[in-house]
């Protein structure tokens, strides 16, 4: 795996509806790091992530993916992107297997039948999120939390080096969060990089290398995930947004690594 930063953002500015929402953000994520992006509602987290992924244009600044400027980046299979509040159903009667298979498209130079490797990668991704038994189930029949795990499997299907996720734990219950924490730990041990928006760190906290806090589109904190400085940054937000919590060590249950049935 290359030592080039999987994601580097320099003085990025993004405007939405004539308002500057991301206001000069610089951020470099090193290979193998687990970086979490925090901040109150409307601080610009999703907008920053979308601009970094090229989903929306930036007004100015620079984004590099694995050392390549965004506009010239073609190795899309190296990135697994799980957008915010994405559901696996979206009104389409696809099975779980089909939804996850769509995450293989970036690996397939030509349209056509899925290869043996495509199928193996999909099965592997489904096993990683413990949804193998639901492969043939229409995605719309799964719970919200299960659908979120389907979308994470979709992001993993291309076997990416960088996993970018916008609130992947929204709607995921505490036990499933433990399962996700175990999964992320495994991905990190394989040298993969994770960049994730979160409101609660829960069971992920011990494995997070770095927290970046956005406030009004600017980086207000960039450093270790625990300690007084992060708490000081998080506190003003907490008064207005109680769901942005300073890292918690416990999620209130004893089971470890178990997924709900
Ligand atoms: N399509 C849009 N058009 C205009 N303004 C937008 C649009 N999307 C977001 N905004 C505004 O941009 C600001 C940043 O929004 P963004 O979704 O990036 O924040 P966030 O930190 O991800 O919030 P949350 O925690 O609620 O997801 C907000 O003030 C929001 O109202």
From TrEMBL:
UniProt keywords (A-Z) are:
ATP-binding, Nucleotide-binding, Transport
Source superkingdom: Bacteria
Q: Which InterPro entries match?
A: AAA+_ATPase, ABC_transporter-like_ATP-bd, ABC_transporter-like_CS, Metal_Ion_Import_ABC, P-loop_NTPase
**GO molecular function terms listed in the Swiss-Prot or TrEMBL record:** ATP binding; ATP hydrolysis activity
Q: Where is the ABC transporter domain?
A: 7-241
* PROSITE patterns reported in the protein's UniProt record: ABC_TRANSPORTER_1 (PS00211), ABC_TRANSPORTER_2 (PS50893)
Q: Is ATP-binding among this UniProt entry's keywords?
A: yes
Entries under Gene3D superfamilies matching the protein: P-loop containing nucleotide triphosphate hydrolases
Pfam name, any one: ABC_tran
Q: Which family does it belong to?
A: Belongs to the ABC transporter superfamily.
Q: What is this protein called?
A: Metal ABC transporter ATP-binding protein
Tell me what organism the protein belongs to. Mumia zhuanghuii
